[in-house]
Structures are given as structure tokens and as C-alpha cells.
Design a protein that fits this description.
Layout: E1 9-12, E2 19-23, H1 37-41, E3 45-50, H2 68-82, E4 87-92, H3 94-105, E5 110-116, H4 127-145, H5 147-152, H6 165-175, H7 180-189, H8 197-204, H9 207-218, H10 230-236
């Protein structure tokens, strides 16, 4: 890959060491991780990004930039830009869906995947159909009313009653930087297409092939075997059948 300047805003924290990509959710920002950075930096080198239209990241006019596949490509751009071989990835909510897609598409670049609090990540095949009318309505309001629509949004951090003071203040400050048009484009062009459920189901059909290759490649002279790859661990720990069925177990890398 040709090294280029990443499109997404990102920050690198801590000392050089195992890198950890942190991706926040819809209408959040780098401030999502503010209470975790000190502890994480003791063992990792956190790379904190901001989604398009959110806080310090741009809001491109090209709507294709907001697609989940474009985010996968951008994560790889950041990895190459920083000269990282493999890294840990962690996503929350929409960020969980995007990082899971990245792990599935680039297992060779991922040491382990962690995700939390995501409706969209493993939503059924009708997710786009169900959520699109809601997202389109929000987008129209954002395009019409701008910041006023953002201030009235249920996710506005000013509405929170449980956040620690430091986190709330940081989130409010970053919320003021959000671009209403960029948020509207995220609502329509990212969220409805974010589920990886069917992608995981499709990849599971290839699992026996992955395992056969790994058994052959990882067998040592003494007959022992090395640990399975991230791709295999992600697929074997996830029982996802096509979108008409239910998820039996949450997918994680262990």
C-alpha cells in the first residue's frame, strides 16, 4: 500500500509498544476513552480516532467515504502510516461494527478484537431496512436545523446524568465540534450498512478451509501446534447463521 496521510483525525498516546486502535460510537468522540487512556497506556500504545463528521475529523462531500468498507480502508491507512505490523482493535457501538468488519477483512493485521455495546454490529439482515427510515428522518432534521438538531438529539452528552464530571465535560466540548452535515451522512451512509452478521456467516463456510491450512502451517516438529490465528478465533467463537437465525454467542477474539 502506498503510504498517504490518513483522512481520519487520530492521536497516538503512551509509549511505543503494542498498539491499540480505539474507535468510538455515533455522536461520540476521542473523549469517549478519556477515563481509560491512563490505564490503557500502561500496557498499550492507544491510537484514538474520530469518525467522519465527528469533532476533529472532516466531513467529506463524497458520501462513499462514509461506507463501512471505506472505514476499513482508512484503518489500514492509519496502520501503514504509523508503521504498525499488527495491532489490537477495540470499538464501541458503531465503532464495534466498524472494527469487527476490519478484523474480518484484515485478520493478518489484528492481534485481538474487543467490542462493546453495539446493536448494529450483529443486527439481522433486515437491519438496513428497519433503521434507514429513522436515520433518514434524523439526517433531514440535521440538514434543516443544523446545530439546533444536534443539541436536541437524545445522545447529546448534556442530557447525561451518570457520566463522571471529567468525561462529561470533555464529551460536551467535543460535541460542539460535530459537523451536522457529516453526522447526517454518517446516519444514512454508515449506520444502516454497518452489520457484519452476514459477513461472519459467509466466512464461516470457509472455516474448515482456514483450519486445514492452519493445521498444516502451524504443526511443529514435536507434533505440537501453535495458537490459531485471529481470523480463526473470531470465526470459531461466533456461531452466526444467515440473518434469519439468531446469534447464539457473541463474537470475540480470545
Amino acid at each position: 500500500m502506498t503510504r498517504r496521510q490518513p483522512l481520519l483525525y487520530f492521536e497516538v498516546h503512551g509509549e511505543p509498544g503494542p498498539y491499540l486502535l480505539l474507535v468510538h460510537g455515533f455522536l461520540s468522540s476521542r473523549a469517549h476513552w478519556i477515563l481509560n487512556l491512563e490505564a490503557l497506556s500502561a500496557n498499550f500504545c492507544p491510537v484514538v480516532i474520530e469518525l467522519l463528521g465527528h469533532a476533529r475529523s472532516p466531513a467529506p462531500d463524497d458520501t462513499s467515504a462514509y461506507s463501512p468498507d471505506s472505514y476499513v480502508a482508512e484503518f489500514e491507512v492509519i496502520r501503514h502510516f504509523l508503521g504498525i505490523d499488527r495491532w489490537f482493535v477495540c470499538g464501541q457501538s458503531l465503532g464495534a461494527a466498524l472494527t469487527l468488519r476490519y478484523s474480518l477483512e484484515h485478520p493478518e493485521s489484528v492481534i485481538a478484537q474487543v467490542f462493546t455495546n453495539s446493536n448494529s454490529a450483529l443486527a439481522g439482515g433486515d437491519w438496513a431496512k428497519r433503521v434507514m427510515p429513522i436515520m433518514e428522518a434524523q439526517a433531514q432534521q440535521l440538514e434543516r436545523d443544523g446545530r439546533a438538531a444536534l443539541d436536541k438529539h437524545p445522545f447529546a452528552p448534556t442530557r447525561s446524568r451518570r457520566l463522571p464530571r471529567a468525561a462529561k465535560e470533555a464529551l460536551i466540548a467535543d460535541y460542539a465540534l460535530h459537523n451536522p452535515i457529516g453526522i447526517a451522512r454518517t446516519a444514512v451512509h454508515t449506520i444502516p450498512y454497518s452489520s457484519v452478521r452476514d459477513l461472519i456467516a459467509a466466512r464461516r463456510y470457509r472455516l474448515s478451509w482456514w483450519q486445514a491450512i492452519e493445521r498444516k502451517a502451524s504443526a511443529n516438529k514435536d507434533g505440537s501446534r501453535s495458537a490459531p490465528s485471529p481470523a480463526s478465533r473470531l470465526l470459531t467463537s461466533t456461531r452466526v447463521t444467515p440473518s434469519t437465525s439468531k446469534t447464539r454467542r457473541a463474537s470475540t477474539l480470545r
